[in-house]
Structure formats: structure tokens, C-alpha cells
């Protein structure tokens, strides 16, 4: 069995997807449609802009989705499609890419939702008040307890359970800094403050969750062609109403990536294709499911390797 997985924020680089657009008209059409949906040439920023502007949350989110969908359309042009996957999943914003690939959301709606999601997440907390940190070398239970102990009345919570030894915490800056120091005291190999502009996947994102609830209520969501693993539940979802509800919960809820991959391997998945920019998910999957076959689909040469 096979799962298609889609990356989240942090994978962005200038030039991503350009080789795909040059090699495949279907991939080029994705970027053109996203540009039209947003009313601006996002593709120019992706291919020739500056990384600081691309990394702004409201740009990075639709840009990464566009790159993933361009890779997916290139796969389709070579005879691979959603029917070749038994499940799809995505990390944070990647869940939107997964839903789009599975036919639950249109490309234009996905682009507009992610532009709104990125802007709302950025605006939810004044710059400098929130922070995130990656804790390496401790499991989720240990980091979750550290976050609770360090909160001291502020928000500090485990936000991303990425793999057995990498958990990201999020919340008020001072609380996250306390948690990072406490993690080192309790045996973490490293505790790294992350260069992010907001405390994603924490309770501080509630204003963004409200904005997404309003936006999603106005969007048609179809039943996906294959089950989508919901970040906040680490289990498959196919019913449009549940998809809508869980996408709202995802804004403030933890990304349960480790459990998602464990669910998939338990369901019989032995092969994962990471579709889009970077290889971050591939590294996580290899640390979670050591026997799994992991492939990357981000440039034409990757697709040629799949064919050959």
C-alpha cells in the first residue's frame, strides 16, 4: 500500500517547482491558476523573488501548495494519479495540498484558503509575543509535560509531534524560552528556538481559527477520492463536514505527524511518496517507519526515476 504525503511550511526555497513548470504544461497550469486565484503573480515570487518575502506565512503557504500540486499534476501526466495512493496526508498546511490532490478542494479555493490562513495566523499574535522551539531527543510525553510545567499561566504547548525524537512547542515567547531551558535540564539533546513569525498550532491562534471557520463555511468541500489523514486526529477522514471541522481545529491543535505515520504503517502502508518541495517529511518518516520505502517527487528527475 502507498500514501502520498505533502510538506508544510519550512520547505520553501526560491525556484521550487520551476523545473516542473518548464517540463510539464500541466504543472505550469497549476501556477497560472494559483496566480489567477490570488490576483497576483505568486509564481514570480516563487521562482525569482527573495526568500524573505517568500517565507512570509501568507506567501509560503499557497506557494508550497502550488509546488506540491504542480508535482502532482506532473505525476498525472506520466500516468500516476490519486488512484495510485491508498491514503493521502499532509503536514500542517500540507493537509490542504492533500485534500486538493484527493479532489476534496478545488485548486483555486485551496490557494485562497491558504492565503487567508497564512495572513490570519500572522495577524493573530503581535510579532515578538509568540515563539516556537524544536525539542530534540525527548519523546512527546516528556515534552508535553515540560510545556505544561513551563507555562506558568501563559500558553505553552506541544504543537508538532514530528517523529520519536523531535517535538515542537509553541506559545508565548517567555514560556517557550522557559520550556526550552527546562528541556535541556531534563535531557534534551538540543532545544532550538525556531525562526518563525508566530506561535502556530497553539491556543494563541484562536483568532485565526475563527477566521478559518468563517472562510471554510463558504467553501464547497467534496468527499475525497481516497481517505485523508487529519493532522489533529491522526486518523482518516472522508466526510466533508468532518473535514471542514477538523481544518478549523488544526489551526490551534497539534500536528500529530508521528501518530499519523504510525496509523498508516499499521494500516499496511509500506511506501510513501513526498510530493512537493524539500525532503523534511521523508526524514521524519524514516525515523518513524524504518522499514518503509520513501520516495521524493519534487523535480522532473524524481518522476523519471519512478518510471524507470
TrEMBL record:
Reported EC number(s) for this entry are: 2.3.1.39
> Superkingdom of the source?
Bacteria
GO CC entries: cytosol
Q: Which reaction does it catalyse?
A: holo-[ACP] + malonyl-CoA = malonyl-[ACP] + CoA
- GO MF entry, a single one: [acyl-carrier-protein] S-malonyltransferase activity
Name of the protein in question: Malonyl CoA-acyl carrier protein transacylase
Q: Which residues form the active site?
A: 92, 201
Task: Read off the SMART domains from this record.
Answer: PKS_AT
Q: Which Gene3D superfamilies match?
A: Malonyl-CoA ACP transacylase, ACP-binding, Malonyl-Coenzyme A Acyl Carrier Protein, domain 2
The text of the family note is:
Belongs to the fabD family.
UniProt keyword Protease, yes or no: no
Organism of origin is Paracoccus halophilus
Q: Which residues form a coiled coil?
A: none
Question: Its Gene Ontology biological processes?
Answer: fatty acid biosynthetic process
Q: Which UniProt keywords apply?
A: Acyltransferase, Transferase
Every copy of the Malonyl-CoA:ACP transacylase (MAT) domain together lies at 5-308
Amino acid at each position: 500500500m502507498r500514501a502520498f504525503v505533502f510538506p508544510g511550511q519550512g520547505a520553501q526555497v526560491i525556484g521550487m517547482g520551476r523545473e516542473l513548470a518548464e517540463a510539464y504544461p500541466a504543472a505550469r497550469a497549476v501556477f497560472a491558476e494559483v496566480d489567477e486565484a490570488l490576483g497576483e503573480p505568486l509564481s514570480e515570487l516563487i521562482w525569482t523573488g527573495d526568500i524573505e518575502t517568500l517565507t512570509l506565512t501568507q506567501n509560503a503557504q499557497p506557494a508550497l501548495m502550488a509546488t506540491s500540486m504542480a508535482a502532482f499534476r506532473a505525476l498525472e501526466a506520466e500516468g500516476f494519479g490519486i488512484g495510485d495512493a491508498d491514503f493521502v496526508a499532509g503536514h500542517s498546511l500540507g493537509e490542504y495540498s492533500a485534500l486538493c490532490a484527493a479532489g476534496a478542494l478545488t485548486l483555486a479555493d485551496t490557494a485562497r484558503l491558504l492565503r487567508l490562513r497564512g495572513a490570519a495566523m500572522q495577524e493573530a499574535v503581535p510579532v515578538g509575543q509568540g515563539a516556537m522551539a524544536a525539542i530534540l531527543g525527548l519523546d512527546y510525553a516528556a515534552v508535553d509535560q515540560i510545556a505544561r510545567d513551563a507555562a506558568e499561566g501563559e500558553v505553552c504547548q506541544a504543537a508538532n509531534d514530528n517523529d520519536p525524537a523531535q517535538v515542537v512547542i509553541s506559545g508565548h515567547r517567555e514560556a517557550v524560552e522557559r520550556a526550552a531551558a527546562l528541556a535541556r535540564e531534563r535531557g534534551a539533546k538540543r532545544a532550538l528556538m525556531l525562526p518563525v513569525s508566530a506561535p502556530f498550532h497553539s491556543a494563541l491562534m484562536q483568532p485565526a481559527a475563527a477566521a478559518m471557520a468563517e472562510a471554510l463555511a463558504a467553501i464547497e468541500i467534496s468527499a475525497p477520492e481516497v481517505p485523508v489523514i487529519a493532522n489533529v486526529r491522526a486518523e482518516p477522514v472522508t466526510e466533508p463536514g468532518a473535514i471542514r471541522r477538523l481544518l478549523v481545529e488544526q489551526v490551534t491543535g497539534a500536528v500529530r505527524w508521528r501518530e499519523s505515520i504510525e496509523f498508516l504503517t499499521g494500516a499496511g502502508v509500506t511506501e510513501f511518496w513526498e510530493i512537493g518541495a524539500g525532503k523534511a517529511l521523508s526524514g521524519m518518516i524514516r525515523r518513524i517507519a524504518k522499514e518503509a520505502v520513501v520516495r521524493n517527487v519534487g523535480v522532473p528527475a524524481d518522476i523519471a526515476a519512478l518510471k524507470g
